[in-house]
Design goal:
This protein is an alpha/beta fold. The radius of gyration is 23 Å and the shape is globular. Bound molecules: FE2/S2 (inorganic) cluster and zinc ion (2 copies). One zinc ion binds next to loops.
Length: 395
């Protein structure tokens, strides 16, 4: 069906038939903030719209173009407007909006069978925290929603940035009496990211990503967590998708999903419950919830193409609010049909235990252990830091 959203104007095509309620849900528009017209006539939420329907969605929250926006839940003065939702929220109701979006991700992530969820209240959850807005917002929201969730901070050894990040995570955990695992790469594995990158000649983000993924999985396995959660938001995921599409990286597209099941022993399911929320929403959530996150970005990401992809998408979003979510969610809706064949699961290579650390690998030694050996061979005094793999626990 052809749908015209008004003020700001946007036109989209949506597969039908669908009820009005399902259409609004699909477009992330709050029902009580709009009127829906089918062929020029008002229709209610239960009306089924045919495949060839001409639909108009008209906002009803008035007050004039220059009036201060009002909260969609209580009509009080709003603190955050979200053109994508054609709505705004006050400080008291913004957390409700964030929790609703997280709830929708947990209960209805695309591709999951009816009744299947990202995780349940019975699962033990481990959220990887960087000290930044997204991961701390996620931890805070899931604690507020009553989940059993602990945190994991991986110390990357990036000077003052890492020190401030760790401090923010420790303060967050201490304030909420929550449990935070801390793995310091230099202490546990003998290298920090800047030295590891210099020793191997590999890009810092590559060395960092492999190290973090390994530590996330290892801590989760060692401590019996069921699910690892990361704070990837809508902007992150849309930028990653654009990068994967621009280079047509089918394997990466096949693995880009908010739920990655564990495909063997010593692996843990990985999920991204913030994929429906923008960076502005998570940052605003932190502000209204009083979360003291680290605002600065990692100093080593300069030149990372991810920033340019985000900037390109922001330009498109400014001209056409909602296009970023449409791009990402449209991909996820088509994911199972069109990209499953590229997932390694089809012809999954057998997994072995790494002969150095016991974690899963397709060869005899895992990529993390091979990278670590390469680094330690090149780093002076590296041998002194070979001891111990048990992580410390903060609280
Ligand atoms: Fe990984 Fe900066 S956080 S390189
Ligand atoms: Zn309100
Ligand atoms: Zn290994």
């Amino acid at each position: 069906m052809h749908v015209r959203l008004r003020n700001p104007d946007r036109e989209v095509t949506v597969d039908g038939p669908l009820t009005v309620a399902d259409l609004l849900d699909h477009l992330d528009v709050l029902p009580h903030t709009v009127l829906v017209l089918h062929d020029g006539e008002l229709v209610t939420g239960d009306r089924e719209l045919p495949e060839d329907a001409e639909v108009e969605i008209r906002p009803v929250i008035s007050g004039g173009a220059n009036a201060a926006p009002r909260c969609a839940d209580c009509s009080g003065p709003a603190v955050l407007e979200e053109p994508r939702h054609r709505a705004a929220w006050c400080a008291a109701h913004l957390p409700d909006h964030v929790e609703r979006q997280i709830r929708k991700a947990i209960d209805h992530a695309p591709g999951m069978a009816q009744g299947e969820r990202m995780f349940s209240y019975a699962d033990r959850l481990l959220v990887t925290v960087s000290g930044g807005k997204d991961s701390l917002a996620l931890w805070d929201a899931l604690l507020a929603m009553g989940y059993r969730i602990d945190g994991l901070y991986v110390g990357l050894g990036i000077g003052g940035y890492s020190a401030r990040s760790q401090q923010a995570c420790e303060q967050f955990a201490a304030d909420r009496d929550a449990r935070l695992h801390v793995v310091d790469l230099a202490e546990e594995y003998g290298y920090a990211i800047p030295g590891g990158s210099a020793a191997t000649g590999r890009a810092t983000c590559g060395v960092c990503g492999l190290s973090k993924r390994y530590a996330f999985n290892k801590v989760a396995v060692d401590h019996g967590y069921d699910v690892v959660l990361t704070g990837h938001n809508l902007d992150d995921e849309a930028a990653i998708l654009l990068g994967n599409v621009l280079r047509w990286q089918d394997q990466f597209l096949a693995r880009q999903h908010p739920v990655l099941p564990a495909s063997g022993a010593n692996q843990v399911r990985k999920v991204k419950p913030l994929y429906r929320l923008s960076e502005r929403e998570t940052a605003a959530y932190c502000v209204v919830r009083g979360i003291d996150y680290v605002v600065e970005e990692c100093p080593l990401v300069a030149g990372n193409t991810g920033h340019e992809l985000k900037a390109a998408l922001d330009t498109l979003e400014a001209a056409s609010p909602g296009i970023k979510a449409q791009f990402l969610f449209g991909f996820l809706d088509r994911h199972a049909d069109r990209f499953a064949e590229y997932a390694s699961d089809g012809e999954a290579p057998a997994l072995n235990d790494c002969d150095a650390c016991g974690m899963p690998t397709t060869g005899s030694r895992c990529a993390f252990c091979r990278q670590r050996e390469l680094i330690l061979q090149s780093l002076p005094l590296a041998g002194a830091a070979m001891a111990g793999t048990a992580d410390s626990v903060y609280a």
